[in-house]
What we know:
By secondary structure, this protein is mainly α.
Amino acid sequence: MANVMRPENGAIVRESGNSMVIVYFDSAPMGYAHLCGMHAAGKLTDFQFQQAVQDFRRLLREDPTRQRFELLNNGRIRRE
Length: 80
């Protein structure tokens, strides 16, 4: 029989089961920073910048993944 290594603290996993892990990386600040950088560099006019920010906010509001995460984060959906 092969040598079995056991942790020194005695911890073992008996019943691991399946689990659901949600990893959400919010890249909106980077997108907004990119728009600001383009505006600062003169690649966007004031009007173009305002339109881009308006469109960006609309896209964020309509994003289903973002909506679900916000519901989870606000405790409106029960975590199991």
